[in-house]
Amino acid sequence: MSAPIVIPTDLRPFDGRFGSGPSKVRPEGVHRLADAATSYLGTSHRQAGVRGVVHKVRDGLREFFSLPDDYEVLLGNGGSTVFWDAASFGLIERRAQHVVVGEFSQKFATVTTKAPHLDDPETIESAPGATPAPCRANPDIDAYCFPHNETSTGVMLDLVRPAGNDPTRGDGLVLVDATSGAGGLRVDPAAYDVYYFAPQKCFGGDGGTWLALCSPAAVERIERLAASDRWRPASIDLGTALEQSRLDQTYNTPSLATVFLLADQIEWMNAHGGLEGMATRCDTSAGTLYGWAERNPLTTPFVADARHRSHVTATIDFADTVDAAAIAEVLRANGILDTEPYRKLGRNQLRIAMFPNIDPDDIERLTRAIDFVVAHLATA
Hints:
Blueprint: H1 27-40, H2 48-64, E1 72-77, H3 80-90, E2 96-100, H4 103-114, E3 122-125, E4 143-147, E5 149-150, E6 155-156, E7 173-177, E8 194-197, E9 209-214, H5 216-226, H6 238-246, H7 256-271, H8 274-295, E10 299-301, E11 313-318, H9 324-333, E12 349-353, H10 360-379
Parallel strand pairs: 2-3, 2-4, 4-7, 7-8
Antiparallel strand pairs: 1-9, 5-6, 8-9, 10-11, 11-12
Helix pairs in contact: 1-7, 2-7, 3-4, 5-6, 8-10, 9-10
């Protein structure tokens, strides 16, 4: 049996967490949570201590995303998958359009397809990794749904409303799944009506919470459907979520640790340049990783169109002569974690997160570690 491959210390990233979710959590935030544990954890989420942290989250996101005064920040329990169910009751009136570019955008389309109270959606589908087709105007559609970043494939989409779209005059709302893009990709609030995400990607926290940035048109839709006779489960009632968020609360008990880590992360992000600072950090990491993949004769970025290669989750294909799964196994044995590809994609590739918490210098060290492993696997 061959000896295990040991990556030299000078080639290893200082922090080996490159997972696309859950993502790297800043140790400083964990330490602050530990310091606050006896006065915060295990206390009522309807009292000032926790509500103050929720308020910091909502205000911090408003600053980070440069939200107009009339936009609202909502939060609730469950991740983005729960928000899809909530949207099917509380945001989509009759029929949605979905741009499908991978596993997660397909899952939302499946939700609205199976919802008995909605008409079958219109679906615009591109093959995984291909240049995505944009949403298109259709007077029969009241909700246009697409991701900012498809986590499964590493495809990044442009945030563009359908031609002539204006929800203030009754056109369809634009609902953007920003689960893995929010916090690392630039965005203009004018481009969406709902920009929803969870904290376990760019915001470097745990899952189990959804957040949604909502335009006045989206708030009007939520309030109107909440006042209608449409049945909806209480736990995912967006009308209730709106009321509770305005009180800096959630309908039922949230993960207090998640909320604390999220508030700490937002504070750190705002202190280091806000959205532009975080997006620039991700740009640097993406330039390093894709540049390496294009120069290396054994690797190719999975997304052929460079303009649509994600700057927060990269998918890198390897030549048939290289076993990417073996690379990921050796990396894991050396403390470099979660570089495996998305399981259902089934490609000979690595998937590497480049979220703001990941130091761009560690991305460079990771490329050198991979080169080292490939060279040693070839001689094993």
